[in-house]
Amino acid sequence: MGKTNKLWIAAGGLFLAALAAVSLFVGKYPLTLGALLSGDPYQWKIFLTLRLGRTVMGVAGGFALGAAGFVYQTVFRNPLASPDVIGVASGASAGAAAGILFCSSAAAVTMSAFAGALLAVMSALALARLDSTGRSGAVVLSGIAVHALAQTALMTLKLTADPERELAAIEYWIMGSLSGISIYDLPAHLILCALCLGILFALHRQVILLANEEGEARALGVNVGALRLMVLLTATLLVAAVVSLTGLISFVGLMAPHCARMITKSNRRETMVFSGLIGGCLLCAGDIFARSAGQAELPVSIFTSLLGAPFLIYLIVKGGRDG
Amino acid sequence: MSFFTAQDICAGYGGKNIVSHCSFSIEEGCLTGLLGANGSGKTTLIKAICGSLPHKGTCTLEGQMLERLSPKALGRRIGYVPQKSGLELDISALDTVMMGFHADLGLLEGPAPGMKKRAAEILDLVGLEGRQEDNYRTLSRGQQQLCLLARAMAADRRMLILDEPESALDFPLRRRMLALVKRWLGEPGRCALVSLHDPALALNHCHRLLLIREGSLLGVLKPGEDDLQTIEAGLSQIYGPVSLQEVSNGRGEKQLVMLWEGQE
């Protein structure tokens, strides 16, 4: 690992730690370090039920989305590929909505969200294969089609939902928020995230090989179909593990890898780590903003979209300038 | 038995054959050129041999049928240089070359220090000294081609396949690339197939020339063994009326030059 990259990772880690520390103490109910240290049971209850869970999810979830975005963009050989753009997140939304309507347990909603995400990525890949030229842009177009289909399914599910209970739960899920996430909800999701991240980091060399054209990768000895399936399944499971708890979080998976590459100017394993750290910073900062910007708590995607939309415009301008 | 044999290869896109019933063989240590006009099927034939395009027929290297090999086993035998890489990633030249060792590594295994050393040496050998950490995307097309050649030559493979490697190279680099391939062929148990646009380059460097037109192999030329009339007749089937002149450079080395004899 280069010395400069080490410094960037250290800086990113420190900044994320600082944001996490701020996140623990920002919110409707005041919380102080002194009261916590003195063992105030009320303060501890707020800390454990309202703050710790969402902060941990902000850090871990953002990291996961940033790292998964790096994988999607590399494997699809498209800088616009992300869990949002290729329809994985909206597939997860439709899946979660089906889970809310037809099952009751949180685990079933998670599984349903995962199944929706998986179905979306498989559909996008299958549709892209209809383009015989193998253009990477075909995946994005397919993702847009899958996104539209998932949105249609979601609207249909919402129409059949009980307005007071199920519809509210679906809307709440879709808006994307870290509120209400308790530390006690997290272990299964965090284990899943850690497992998927471990696999993706271990497969980093293979992920980079998939950035070659399919025939070129095959000539290098890569079993392209099997490897791409394994990598995308793992990345999709990672995204599903996050969004099944948080709901839709826009643009984190798109912005974080770009920022990491712009800063490190490489695609090495440390760039993937840095992408995760930037993702964590974005989600943590978005959650702090969501809690402190208004009287009522805002959806976190408002903040990430506020950054994401101009970022997309920047990419268009930069692409035009670079030719 | 020949070192490499292609038997009755048919391949194409969308159900339409671009190359039909191509059969040929390459002997050990032989640099074989593939000459044909644009759209004659050179790249399609090369992609079929590399296993990146479904095809009918069989390819045999050292007695092993390539179609029966796993992608990894195939990658351990063949080094491939595409006409233009689809790699559009910020990645160092050294890391690009290290990709060439993939077939020798386990799923979770990283390249050994010896591989990194070898990759650095081969980058120096192809003329990219001091460019190890340069971003592959910022290299010129010619330098990228050299980097891809280094990737194909870094690991110990049995056969090198190059698809129009000279298309992005200037005059000295074209000669250098083929000289590097010939040097690589100096080790026993190796052969190379290279599709070329430049007939003069092919005539003066290749041991054998396969002539391809409209997806069919027309014949094999042996520069240095066949007489000029035979070679002229063969090349005229591809390029139209041409003649060959044998000329000498300042050092007295004889080279063949192809001249156009038709009307513009």
Care to describe what's here?
Chain A has 323 residues and is mainly α. Chain A has a single domain (3-322), classed as ABC transporter involved in vitamin B12 uptake, BtuC, CATH 1.10.3470. Chain A has helices at residues 3-25, 33-37, 41-75, 88-102, 106-128, 137-159, 166-175, 186-202, 204-209, 214-219, 224-246, 252-264, 269-292, 300-322. In chain A, helix 4 runs antiparallel to helix 7 and helix 13 packs across helix 14 (300-322). Chain A starts with a helix and ends with a helix. In chain B, helix 6 links the parallel strand 7 (159-163) and strand 8 (191-196). In chain B, strands 6-7-8-3-9-10 form a six-stranded mixed β-sheet, with helices on both faces. In chain B, strands 2-1-4-5 form a four-stranded antiparallel β-sheet, with helices on one face. A two-stranded antiparallel sheet of chain B has the order 11-12. Chain B has one domain: Rossmann fold (3-Layer(aba) Sandwich). The N and C termini of chain B lie far apart (45 Å). Chain B is α/β, with parallel strands linked by helices. In chain B, helix 4 crosses helix 5. Chain A binds chain B through residues 74, 77, 132, 202-203, 205-206, 208-209, 211-216, 218-224, 261, 265-268, and chain B through 13-14, 47, 50-53, 70-76, 78, 80, 82, 85-92, 95, 99-100, 102-103, 105, 107-108, 110, 135, 161.
Number of structural domains of chain B:
1
CATH architecture of chain B: 3-Layer(aba) Sandwich
Summarize the biggest pleated sheet of chain B. Answer: 6 strands, mixed
First and last CA, distance of chain B: 45 Å
- Please mark out the parts of chain A with pLDDT under 50 across 5 or more consecutive residues, or reply none: none
Largest interface: A-B, 27 and 36 residues
Strand content of chain A: under 5%
CATH topology of chain A: ABC transporter involved in vitamin B12 uptake, BtuC
> Quick one: CATH class of chain A?
Mainly Alpha
Q: What class do helices, strands and sheet pairing of chain A give? A: mainly alpha
What is the element string of chain A, with H for helices and E for strands? Answer: HHHHHHHHHHHHHH
The largest beta-sheet of chain B arranges its strands as 6-7-8-3-9-10
